[in-house]
Amino acid sequence: MNDTLYSLQRGTTPLLVSLPHAGRHIPPTIAERLMPRALQVEDTDWYLDRLYAFVTDLGASLIVPRHSRYVVDLNRPSDNRPMYAGANNTELCPTRFFTGEALYRDGQAPSPAQVQQRVATYWQPYHDALRDELARLKNEHGHAILFDGHSIKSELPWLFDGKLPDLNLGTASGAACAQSLREALATLLQSQTQFTVAVDGRFKGGHITRHYGQPAMGVHAVQLEKCWSTYMHETSPFEWDATHAARVQPLLQQMVRTMLDWTPR
């Protein structure tokens, strides 16, 4: 395990929780090429390691990267294939903020060779760890579940129209997990009234959900994209909101328990 690239806490249940956009570190050789604004890493999935800290107490494995998505996006395919055709997309090595402005100083965006170097240095080790941990869990339990956790500002006009639902469950339209698991999680989310919910709407799951979710092979993957407003302040300095977090965490715990209680038919 490479502690400089990610932390991995191995659990005792079939569940692996991945938080691929929670990292904030940018190496100095990359930071000096970015616009000054980028050093605030505003497009981070803020505080998710704190929000989901409870999962290890429930026996789940937890993997969290050290580096910012501005270095390389761990939830994009290594060939930079667009995840959502016909819409503005974020890239494997992002060149724009989520608001559309340039991320790099003029002429400083990474070359194709530099992108591939970042894939080899940062992207591949994380995916090797995901693959190996899922294989371990499947070998021990007969099946594995990957829960990919994300968060985002609730309004980003360059990427989306209008305000996003609070909680967005993605299963690649049902292809990434067993139908019974999808139904159990969707029913849980849709039965509460505190938060708005979408299932396989704008967020159907990124590369991690789509690539690793192979229910026929005993590996089931789901993604949850939640709005920052459910647990933090959406404007700089992007502070944790303990009152809001206390409202959403019980539901997240119920989601995790639902995945732990679920077994393949």
Secondary-structure map:
Layout: E1 6-9, E2 15-18, H1 28-31, H2 48-51, E3 61-65, H3 112-141, E4 144-152, E5 167-170, H4 179-190, E6 197-199, H5 207-212, E7 219-227, H6 242-261
Helix pairs in contact: 4-6
Structure, described:
- It contains six helices and seven strands.
- By secondary structure, it is α/β, with parallel strands linked by helices.
- It has a single domain (6-261), classed as Zn-dependent exopeptidases (Aminopeptidase, 3-Layer(aba) Sandwich), CATH 3.40.630.40.
- The protein has a seven-stranded mixed β-sheet.
- Helix 4 (179-190) runs antiparallel to helix 6.
- The longest helix is centred in the middle third of the chain and has 30 residues, at 112-141.
- It is globular, with a radius of gyration of 18 Å.
- The mean pLDDT is 95.
